[in-house]
Amino acid sequence: MGFDMGLVPSNPDGWGPPDVPAIPQSLGGGAAIPFAPFSRSDRLGRIADWTRNPAGPGAFAAASRDSVFDFTSADDSFVAGAEDSSFRLVDAKPPPRQPRFGPKWRFNQRPQLPQRQDEEVEARRRLAEKERARRDRHFQNNRSHHHPGFRGNQSSSSAKPSVDIQPDWTMREQIPFANFTKLSFSVTDQPEDLLSCGAVEFYDRAYDRVNPKAARRLERFKNRNFFKVTTTDDPVIRRLAEEDKATVFATDAILAALMCTPRSIQSWDIVVQRVGNKLFFDKRDGSQLDLLTVNETAQEQLPENKEDINSAHSLAVEATYINQNFSQQVLHREGEKVTFDEPNPFASEGEEAAPVGYRYRRWKLDDEISLVARCEVHAVNADPSGGRQFLTLNALNEFDPKITGVDWRQKLETQRGAVLATELKNNANKLARWTAQALLSGADMMKLGYVSRVHSRDHYNHSIFTVMGYKPRDFAAQINLNTANMWGIVKSIVDICMKFEEGKHVFVKDPAKPQVRIYEVPSDAFENDYVEEPLPEEEQVRPLADVDATAQEMDAAAEAEANGASAANGAEATAA
């Protein structure tokens, strides 16, 4: 037998082997070579296994050619199988520890399994979703239909009008608030001061340096009397009306309520009397206008139970009581006074009245109508240039930080803007009225005091945290109070009333809807509120605005509470 050299391919086109070498028939030349697809990330162990034996003698012929390239059989994964046989799944979780005993182990060991942590996270997430859904439902229920502060869920059953509507009253007009917001009127001429009465004391600048860390306790002034006299009971206004000085007469509190009508939520009423060609805007004795509202424009409603110290009525009495005492405490009570042309027209002989300056000012609305209003200033301050500045003094009160959402003790020093923004949201109507009164009186500065309860459940004792000063016009621009719109509301109401016949009418703010109704009432309506002769004691009705009596009751209650506590302590000591 000769030596077989095999097939030697020739390259007739050049030197070297051809580009595609010929494959011998023994190696499958001319036949399709099987190819196993693979990924580039796969590990290649071998290309062809020439040492592998077929599965049996009968299978050699069928697998003689393709078996060397077959990577799917069990023998092809011999090495992988050997590796798999040596591999075992290892649990990385530490073995459970044996229980130990002793106080140190019992208090220091706090096992937290991953499953327990996941359950707590899921529970907190579900709780947060429920709270968010509850807030969304509450917001939708309380969402305003005319401005953000209006509580649309108030119904006629829960909110009552400030005055009982009688069957014999005739409704003449019904004005939505949307009509008021579009009005505009400019009073071109400056107001004219017809007369000034009373006296004012100087403001104590030491209160400008008061802060929550060095708060001042609010004092009580039982001997000073405060007067809330309506228009027709003012002897000066009667005299000016007889002298035909104007055609419309009112007070700054009544005008401010009319000017800020679109911001009001709670019900209020104003009595309008037309006598000849003159109009008198009055308030009833014991009217809601004598009390200061608290959280009127807030989203959260206050309790309706009057016995609750955080109810709307209780907070209104408390706020009025605070406002009066604050206006007296920040004065130099033993110092010099600034007296006006005439003395206080409401104080009697020997009666100590709170120092207030009354300025009777006249505005010209048009060629035929002029308005006279009695405006108040509460203090005077020495101007650095040598002149004098008149001030108005008012106090905001905090009753429970959990309800308002802002704690004054923590925020007043570092975030005064946030505190003021919260008050503007919760008491938009009250702050707008104070600003309107300061603009009407021609005050150079308005001082706002921040007064809080010593304890959230103690409505007898309060502390002054700080006092801030603002220029009325700048503050009006800050709270978006448009003076042209204010005078436009007054002008439109005066024009409506001038079309009525002589008689008495009542403006009533609807307690549940953003609108004002005008009723024609009998001429003898509310006469019991204006009688000068005292009624029998059993027939007397205590007015809501009798804040002086309320202050005395609060003082008496506080003393009784203190005496009761001391008596209880003595009884316990005796028993012991």
TrEMBL record:
It is found in: Cytoplasm. Residues 288-302 are annotated as: RNA gate. Component of the eukaryotic translation initiation factor 3 (eIF-3) complex. The RNA gate region regulates mRNA cap recognition to prevent promiscuous mRNA-binding before assembly of eif3d into the full eukaryotic translation initiation factor 3 (eIF-3) complex. Coiled coil: none annotated. Signal peptide: none annotated. HAMAP family: eIF3d (MF_03003). The keyword Protein biosynthesis applies. This is Eukaryotic translation initiation factor 3 subunit D. Belongs to the eIF-3 subunit D family. GO terms for molecular function: mRNA cap binding; translation initiation factor activity. Residues 548-576 have a biased composition (Low complexity). Residues 1-28, 89-164, 533-576 are annotated as: Disordered. Residues 116-134 have a biased composition (Basic and acidic residues). mRNA cap-binding component of the eukaryotic translation initiation factor 3 (eIF-3) complex, which is involved in protein synthesis of a specialized repertoire of mRNAs and, together with other initiation factors, stimulates binding of mRNA and methionyl-tRNAi to the 40S ribosome. The eIF-3 complex specifically targets and initiates translation of a subset of mRNAs involved in cell proliferation. In the eIF-3 complex, eif3d specifically recognizes and binds the 7-methylguanosine cap of a subset of mRNAs.
